Amino acid sequence: DGGITQSPKYLFRKEGQNVTLSCEQNLNHDAMYWYRQDPGQGLRLIYYSQIVNDFQKGDIAEGYSVSREKKESFPLTVTSAQKNPTAFYLCASGIRDTGHFGQGTRLTVV
Amino acid sequence: GQSLEQPSEVTAVEGAIVQINCTYQTSGFYGLSWYQQHDGGAPTFLSYNALDGLEETGRFSSFLSRSDSYGYLLLQELQMKDSASYFCAPTPYNTDKLIFGTGTRLQVFP
């Protein structure tokens, strides 16, 4: 079955450490996205990529970095520069009318 | 600029009909999507309106009026499992990204 896989589901990070969240899709989608969701809030766009080797900043890109070396993969690195990284991170792919989401990674800074 | 407005919370009883409104301000957009998200889960796609008018999918219908910058999601024959957050998401012109608001939390009571 086609879909999006995010890993890990839960992640704990010490302050000052970088951490990378994985996102893989086998839907053959060109576009991929990373969103952040805080408790009781909506989704805010961090980065998105419309094609391999190209990506654009979203509304809250500071403290994050991404790469898009393969069509299937769009990893997100949460750097130590991100001051409040504890959140639910969602990866998505697809065109504008049928976005598919992964099951999310819940990141907690300890 | 871009802005989205949805009611923060709506309550209803099983079997009822509920309408969740969405008003938006964008400089131009392709269409309007709706997503459902249960607590702790990932958003799932419900519907997409590329044109003005009503789109029906089972118990759910979605409406778009571009001239009024307005859309709504209509849920009929409510069930307990419909308790979730609902997000409208327009896609601005010349991008493939979805803009999410803070969503509407629907609570269905017996």
Architecture overview:
- The complex is a heterodimer of chains A (110) and B (110).
- Chain A is mainly β and 110 residues long.
- Chain A has strands at 4-7, 10-13, 19-25, 32-37, 43-51, 54-57, 64-66, 76-78, 87-93, 100-101, 105-109.
- In chain A, strands 2, 4, 5, 6, 9, 10 and 11 form a seven-stranded mixed β-sheet that branches.
- In chain A, 35% of the residues are buried.
- The mean pLDDT of chain A is 92.
- Chain B is mostly beta strands.
- Helices cover 0% and strands 57% of the residues of chain B.
- Chain B is built from no helices and ten strands.
- Chain B has strands at residues 3-5, 9-13, 18-25, 29-37, 44-49, 53-57, 60-65, 70-75, 84-92, 104-109.
- A five-stranded antiparallel β-sheet of chain B has the order 1-3-8-7-6, with no helix packed on it.
- In chain B, a hairpin with a 6-residue loop joins strand 4 (29-37) and strand 5 (44-49).
- Chain B is globular, with a radius of gyration of 13 Å.
- Chain B starts with a strand and ends with a strand.
- The interface between A and B is medium-sized, with 23 and 22 residues.
Features:
heterodimer; A: 110 residues; mainly beta; seven-stranded mixed β-sheet; four-stranded antiparallel β-sheet; 11 strands; 0% helix; globular; B: 110 residues; five-stranded antiparallel β-sheet; five-stranded mixed β-sheet; 10 strands; 57% strand
